[in-house]
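User: Good morning. I'm curious how magnesium ion would be positioned relative to this chain. Could you predict the structure with it bound?
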Amino acid sequence: MRVAFVGKGGAGKSAIAGTFARLLARAGGPVLAIDSDPMPGLAHSLGVEVTDAPIPDDAVTERREGEEGPRFRLREGLTPVEAVERYAVRGPDGVRFLQFGKLRGPAWALAGSQFAFREIVAGLPDDGWSLVGDLPGGTRQAFFGWGSYARTVLVVVEPTAKSLLSARRLARLALGERPPERVVALANKIRGPADVDLVARRSGLDVVGAVPWDEALAEAERQGLPPVDAAPDSAAVAAVVSLLERLNEEQTR
Ligand SMILES: Nc1ncnc2c1ncn2[C@@H]1O[C@H](COP(=O)(O)OP(=O)(O)O)[C@@H](O)[C@H]1O
Ligand SMILES: [Mg+2]
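Assistant: Good morning! Here's the predicted structure, ligand included:
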């Protein structure tokens, strides 16, 4: 399974992506949760320690003068799987967590890490690993291919005017040059069927799931705890379980 969660900031990408990754890891098989948002979020919802550490510079070699290709490459002999074993943090349920580093210093300081990050997620073998990505709010990274490891892009949409507008723009990912197999909507913070209809109509996307507005999630956030640990029996977590089941089913069909 290879998915990426996109959508407006605050829509619920991190809360849902972290929950989804943990549930997927419990089902067995290696899961890499990928955070390319410079604001932490996914670490909290997974329950891994928040660090700012990028992939270290010794993971990459810089292109020499006159050489072709990207500016940085994974160090010779370092495969994407080994890079994950070495640099991804191990979290609860065995989920692995990789981030490209937080923008504290100058952006160029992270260049090596970001190249490594993209090479790792692009190069992980297709049959074994599941990838669950959490992209930053808005459309920029998504349209620059940061979620291109995903076969299914899930646009997380709240039933608010701004979130719906953002979803409409993100729906155009399906029209790009190398589009993902599917771009679908996941309605979040839903308070009734009318909200789901609104998301379907205004986003123009198929809605593959609806997560109710759930106080338990807000409370988990206040406590800095993953929803799957703090509120395992909540309606919101149950809705993510249903989403996972549905995607699994559609995949094996
Ligand atoms: N279904 C929900 N019900 C209640 N609160 C939610 C729900 N989904 C997300 N939230 C809360 O909304 C806020 C934004 O969620 P977050 O996952 O950080 O958004 P994003 O990653 O899209 O910016 C958080 O406080 C989170 O706990
Ligand atoms: Mg987030």
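The longest helix spans residues 235-252. The chain has a mean pLDDT of 90.
Let me know if you'd like a different ligand tried.
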